[in-house]
Amino acid sequence: MGACLMVDALPDEYEDYTRRLIGLRVGDLFRFRCTRCGRCCSGGPNVSLTVFDVVRMARFLSISWKGFLRAYVKVIIADLIPHMVLRGDDKGRCLFLAEKASGEKLCVIYPARPMRCRLYPVLVEDLSGERVFLDPRSPGVGRGSPRPLPRRLIEHYIWERREHYRRLYRVIVEEGFLPIRGLYRVLEEAWEEAEKGAPWADLDYLAGLGSV
Ligand code: SF4
């Protein structure tokens, strides 16, 4: 059994952080301008991935989904369901974070970056699609002109997240695959869909859904 962090053992700063999250309703205006500080990509390998993220990134890098998993993904199995997160380096920085000579940070897979990164600092935890949170730790929050939240992008992310778990549930719980085998099966299916031209695999289509 994996380690379990008891709620009453959470550090004070965690409670403080969750209390400071800025709640918004989809349709509200928000202000954010990226400062290219790279902080959001340096805080640990904590970007969770769906099979759609993995297939897009692997195709962008012209490698197989299996090769991508081996090199860049940590898989954690909890209650039969595999969860994928991006690996970081020994300092917790994302393996795709690069730095220009000027010190400016950049993501080397930016057009195919995971949906969580695409949406950051907007955090979509409520899958009803009605409420989101802004992460107050981002120095870009509160900068720039007020603009609406990217509703279509948020809706698409919710679709991908639901679909990801629906497919895993189908193969693992209903069809009886072992968790890792089930994950491979779902990735293989998603890869085939992408090869046949599924809209979610088209980076221009995704870019057209709006941005944060
Ligand atoms: S994939 Fe790109 S945007 Fe996402 S954490 Fe890594 S460097 Fe940052």
Short description:
The chain has 212 residues and is of the alpha+beta class. It has helices spanning 12-20, 51-60, 65-72, 115-119, 151-174, 179-195, 203-207, and strands at 22-25, 29-30, 48-49, 73-78, 81-86, 97-99, 105-107, 122-123, 131-134, 147-148. It has one domain (26-207).
Shape: globular
Task: Give the beta-strand count.
Answer: 10
Percentage of residues in DSSP E strands: 15-25%
Count of discrete alpha- or pi-helical segments spanning 4 or more residues: 7
Present as ligands are: iron/sulfur cluster
How many distinct domains?
1
Largest sheet: 3 strands, antiparallel
Detail the topology: elements first, then pairings.
Elements: H1 12-20, E1 22-25, E2 29-30, E3 48-49, H2 51-60, H3 65-72, E4 73-78, E5 81-86, E6 97-99, E7 105-107, H4 115-119, E8 122-123, E9 131-134, E10 147-148, H5 151-174, H6 179-195, H7 203-207
Antiparallel strand pairs: 1-9, 2-10, 3-5, 4-5, 6-7, 8-9
Helix pairs in contact: 2-3, 2-6, 5-6
Bound molecules: iron/sulfur cluster (SF4).
Iron/sulfur cluster (SF4) is lined by residues 41, 47, 94, 96-97, 107, 109, 113-114, 117.
